[in-house]
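BUG: 3D viewer hangs when loading the predicted structure for this chain

Environment: internal workstation, default settings.
Expected: structure renders.
Actual: progress bar stalls at 90%.

Input used:
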Amino acid sequence: MKKLYPETRQKIRSYTNDVEININILNGVGIDITKDGFFKVRPDERTPSCKIYKDGSFHDFGSGEHYSDIVSLFYDGYHAFNSLPETMEWLCQELNIQWEVM
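Structure tokens produced before the viewer hung:
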């Protein structure tokens, strides 16, 4: 599958390869993260099943999915947005990255 918006996605990835930035973004949408990097990706979970890694990727032990970046986590995993451009636009606003959807 062809990657959409590769330059912008790489820019988002370069901003979010810092774990603290990812934690701030997740905290900003109401997701609490444990000291060891785990959090609940589904509202009905009793225990956190998703882990954030130091390289900016995420692993959901509940589904077995690995998300290479926060774009994938929000769009493919968390289903927080209806479209990939909407996901990326929101992240660009959060990270102060200028981007116009074409």
